[in-house]
Amino acid sequence: MTTSDRTARIREAQTLVIKRMKADPAAARSTIVTTGRIDEGLTCHVEQGRFTAVADLGRGMGGDAEGPSPGFYGRAAIVGCVGMGVKMLAAREGLVFDSMTITVETDFDDAALFGLGNSSAAPLVTRIEIEITSDADPAQVSDCVGRALEMDPWFLALRDAQLVQPRTTLRRTSPQDIGDLGTGAKSDADRTAPAMAGTDARQRDSAEHG
């Protein structure tokens, strides 16, 4: 299959998706649930639908180096989402990109991980380089990239402020008096945790952009 044929296939698939979304806008809304479990050590086993991954830290940080760090997956999400998003829009507009290389660089003050200093633990600056091999008009390529970034979930998640709602649930490893949990608290046997928003929404493991 040639690059042009592959581009046409991408365009046709997206045209069908867009048609369905226009016919039923509510169906375009979804909630994706990813779960990670850490037992002994720092190794985190991540699951989302039929997909799994392992994240860990190196031995110098007390981990077992069983997998890449969480930061690897964070940067991988940006690299993949930006690259796919740009190529998706290019395909819809008839631009043929033979190949793309996306590079993400993040600068940190690692002392902030331990509450030291005045810096944020978030990236201090992130640089994203997008290299495209194509015979398309440079102005069209630049316009395509700019518009694609404004529709890209993980680029926007990194760039823009988000509504993030953390919640902590304490589960005892051994029976405890309810009083130990604090006034008005319930034991696990008595407590039903509120469902996370959208847990009944359709999962989109294969369709998720990013």
Question: Could you describe the 3D structure shown?
Answer:
It comes from Pseudooceanicola pacificus. This is OsmC-like protein. Residues 201-210 have a biased composition (Basic and acidic residues). Residues 167-176 have a biased composition (Polar residues). Residues 167-210 are annotated as: Disordered. With 210 residues, the protein is an alpha+beta fold. Among the domains are: 31-68; 70-162, K homology (KH) domain (GMP Synthetase, Chain A, domain 3, 2-Layer Sandwich), CATH 3.30.300. Helix content is 30%, strand content 15%. It has 4 helices and 5 strands. Strands 1-2-3 form a 3-stranded antiparallel β-sheet, with no helix packed on it. Strands 4-5 form a two-stranded antiparallel ribbon. Helix 1 (3-23) packs across helix 2 (70-92). The radius of gyration is 22 Å and the shape is globular. The protein starts with a helix and ends in a 51-residue tail after the last helix. The model is unreliable at 178-210 (pLDDT under 50).
